[in-house]
Amino acid sequence: MSDDVKILFDNNRAWAESVKTDDPAFFEKLAAQQTPEYLWIGCSDSRVPANQIVGLLPGEVFVHRNVANIVVHTDFNCLTVLQYAVEVLKVKHVIVVGHYGCGGIRAAYESRYTGLADNWLRNIRDVHFRYREELDAIADKEERLARLCELNVITQVSHVCHTTIAQQAWSRGQKLAVHGWVYSLRDGLVKDLDCSVDGLELIPEAYRIVG
Question: In what order do the strands lie in the sheet with 38-43?
Answer without folding.
Answer: 61-66, 38-43, 93-99, 177-183, 190-192
